[in-house]
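My main concern about presentation is that the manuscript never shows what a single data entry looks like. An entry of this sort, consisting of the sequence and the corresponding C-alpha cells, reads as follows:
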Amino acid sequence: SVHLAQGHRSRARAVSMPLSRASSAGKRERARAYNKALPLTIRCLTWNVGNAKPVAAELAHALPDGLDEDIIVVGTQENSYKAGKGGRKRAVAQEKRAVAQESPEPTEKAGSAYSAYEPAPTPGSPHSSVGDTEEREEESAAAVGGGGKGHAEWEEMLARRLGRGYVPVRHVRLWEMRLSVYVKASQRANVTKVHVASAATGGPGGMLGNKGGLVVRLRLGATSLAFVSCHLAAHSHMLSRRNHNCSELLRETASALGPRHLTAAAQFDHVFWLGDLNYRTDLNAAAAAAGEEAPFPTDEEHHGQVLRLVEQGDWGALLGADQLAASRAAGEAFVGFEEGPIAFAPTFKVERSSELVYQQKRIPSYCDRVLWKSAAGLRGAVSQTSLAALPRVSTSDHKPVVATFSLTPSEALRGTMQEVRSGGSRGSRGSSRKSSLFGNVSSSFAAGSASF
C-alpha cells in the first residue's frame, strides 16, 4: 500500500507491476483469448465510512454472495477506526445491531471460501496482492507513516467478503482514504501495466491528505482503465474549491500514470471516478441561476424544503439543485464524464442507523457519486447496469453507493479506434490523437478554468 505522511505534499509516483512473468508472446495469446469473452463487467463501491469500524455483515449489501464482475473497485473515505473516545464501544454496539438485523453473515455459510474466523491471507497465497514481491517490498519501504491496525483489518474484511475467487491488484491509501482494486482470479494473468498514484489537496496550500485522491491504472487484455477515488472539500460554500481539487488531483498524478501532458481523465480508454465528492443540494443557487430570488433565507427553511422533496421522492427537483450537475452543465468540472440516472434519496448527512434519518445540521445531499468517461471512439462502450444507495448500512453518516457496468473491451472495437486515430494526414496522426482523442493538460487546465 502507498501512504503519505501527515504534513507532506503528495508526490505521485509510478510503480510498474507486471502481473505475469510469461513471455510477450504468451501475454498476447492470453489477451487474444480474453477479448473473445464479452463483455467486461465492473462493480464500483464508494463509501465514506465515517471513522467508525465497518461491520462485516453490512458489507454484504455492497458485495453480496455470487459476485461475478471481472473487476471490483472499493473506494472509501474517513476509513480509520479509532478505539478512543467511545469509538470501540460504539463500533461494538453497531455490530451487534447490524448482526441482529441481518441474516447470518454470508461468509460464514458452509462451503464458502472464507469463514469469518479464518486467518487473513498471507503473501504468496492465492488472495495476496498480485505483482512482483520485491516491488511490493520497495513500495512498502517507501511509504512514510505507519499503516495501523485498521488498514489491515479493512483489507482482511474485503478479502473474506470476496473470497478466493478474487485477487487484489493493489491497495492504495492516503491518510483516511483507501482504494482497493480486485480482479477475478481467472483474469489475473490478463492484467498488466499497473501503476498507482495519490495526491493531497487538503489544508493550506493543498498540503494535507485529509482531502485528495487515489488512482489505480491497469490494462486488462487490450483495455486500459483508470480508477480514481477521492474525498473533496466539504461544505456548501466550497464549490469552487471542490472543482479545483479535482483539477489539482489530476495534475498531481499525471506524470505517475503515463505521459506528463495527459491526465488520468484523458489518457485511458475508460476512467471511473468515485468518492465522497461533497457536492451539495442548493435550492437557493438553483433559483438564482434561473433569475429568481432565493426562496429559503434560513438554513432551517432550506433544510425543511429539501426534506419535503425527499419525502415526496422528487429526485428530479433535488438533482436540479445539485452542485455537481450545475458544475458539469457549466463546463466547470467533470467535462466529458457521464453519470447514470439517480433514483434514490440523498446519501448524506444521516443518522448512524439502518433507517434513513437526516441530521438537522446539514442539508441532505448527493455527496457520494460514481461517474465515468471514455476516450473518443470508445464512447458508448460503457453501459451502466445499476446504480443504487444502500440505506440499511448503519455505521456511517453516509450511505454507500454501488454502481455496476458492462463494457465492450477495446480489442473488439479496434476498427472504430483506428478510424478515429487515423483522422487527418498520416504525418499529423500523433498530434491528432493527442488533441481530438484525449485532450491535453494545457487545454484541460486553461487559465482561470477548473474544468478537466
About this structure: The chain has a mean pLDDT of 77. The chain is about 30% helix and 20% strand.
